[in-house]
């Protein structure tokens, strides 16, 4: 069953290939495939239309894809508000199709705990091993991400055997502290309380808490800061300091659109380190690559 969704602002390569989510593959040009819950979804863009298929077929596929790609977000409004920032204003057109994703909260939490001090290929490999060992089969080559119950059966040794290294202790500890009821409670928390609750979990520091708040719990005011974003803030705004100081700077500068601003800065800074890409500039037009 093919489902068509009309989405104005969507670039699949930017959205699914920028590092905010880890299980999607764009091996076929113009087409991306990855799991959403218990099905393998294939997405293909044609003009304003997004074509979606899944294995196995799911009657609620359109809802799943819409939720995952946050189609309710008013990108036009987000850009109108961010364009008031003179640094952002000149580069927004190049990231018009870069949308934030809405991952499952549990998958996002474990994924970003695994993401500490690891590159994207290694993160993808660790998640794949967890899914293969503890998840439920979707196809002959793809399993769903393990549920809280499924992952909770794993010993630290079994987690280490999935290539998690020291992160195995963190995952095991989280499984002891978080169940479905606790996760449901966290979904209802205000942003600051949610962040504080995440920081109480093993392996969750400031950046992971903000990533999970943004990409898992959908809190658009969250502003994760990694080395790329820290570099962008210094280069473009002259902003330097502690993690908390930079978060406060972003909150004041971008408000409720901080999550989108973060992803745009992250995407741009990585592009600048490679072959170019979109360029946000300081007032006056300079696009120096060094602070």
Explain what this protein looks like in three dimensions.
- The protein is built from 15 helices and 4 strands.
- With 291 residues, it is an alpha+beta fold.
- Among the domains are: 3-72, TATA-Binding Protein, CATH 3.30.310; 105-216, Orthogonal Bundle (Endonuclease III, domain 1).
- Strands 1-4-3-2 form a 4-stranded antiparallel sheet.
- A hairpin with a 2-residue loop joins strand 3 and strand 4 (49-55).
- The N and C termini lie far apart (51 Å).
Secondary structure layout:
Blueprint: E1 3-6, H1 12-17, E2 31-36, E3 39-46, E4 49-55, H2 61-68, H3 75-82, H4 86-89, H5 105-114, H6 120-134, H7 148-151, H8 156-161, H9 167-177, H10 180-187, H11 191-199, H12 206-216, H13 227-237, H14 243-254, H15 258-273
Antiparallel strand pairs: 1-4, 2-3, 3-4
Helix pairs in contact: 5-12, 11-12, 13-15
């Amino acid at each position: 069953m093919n489902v068509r969704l009309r989405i104005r602002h969507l670039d699949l390569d930017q959205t699914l290939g920028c590092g905010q989510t880890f299980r999607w593959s764009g091996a076929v040009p113009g087409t991306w495939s990855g799991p959403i819950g218990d099905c393998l979804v294939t997405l293909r863009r044609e003009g304003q239309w997004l074509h979606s298929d899944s294995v196995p077929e799911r009657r609620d596929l359109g809802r799943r894809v819409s939720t995952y790609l946050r189609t309710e977000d008013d990108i036009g409004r987000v850009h109108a508000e961010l364009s008031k920032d003179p640094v952002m204003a000149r580069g927004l057109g190049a990231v018009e199709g870069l949308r934030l994703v809405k991952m499952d909260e549990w998958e996002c939490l474990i994924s970003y705990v695994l993401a500490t001090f690891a590159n994207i290929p290694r993160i993808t490999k660790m998640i794949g091993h967890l899914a293969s060992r503890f998840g439920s089969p979707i196809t002959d080559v793809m399993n769903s991400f393990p549920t809280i119950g499924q992952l909770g059966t794993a010993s630290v040794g079994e987690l280490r055997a999935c290539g998690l290294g020291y992160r195995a202790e963190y995952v095991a500890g989280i499984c002891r502290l978080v169940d479905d009821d606790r996760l449901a409670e966290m979904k209802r928390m205000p942003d600051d309380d949610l962040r504080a609750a995440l920081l109480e979990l093993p392996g969750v520091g400031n950046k992971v808490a903000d990533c999970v708040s943004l990409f898992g719990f959908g809190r658009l005011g969250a502003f994760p800061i990694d080395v790329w974003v820290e570099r962008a803030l210094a280069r473009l705004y002259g902003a330097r300091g502690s993690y908390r100081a930079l978060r406060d700077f972003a909150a004041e500068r971008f408000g409720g659109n901080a999550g989108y601003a973060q992803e745009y800065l992250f995407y741009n800074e990585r592009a600048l380190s490679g072959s170019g890409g979109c360029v946000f500039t300081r007032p006056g037009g300079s696009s120096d690559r060094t602070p």
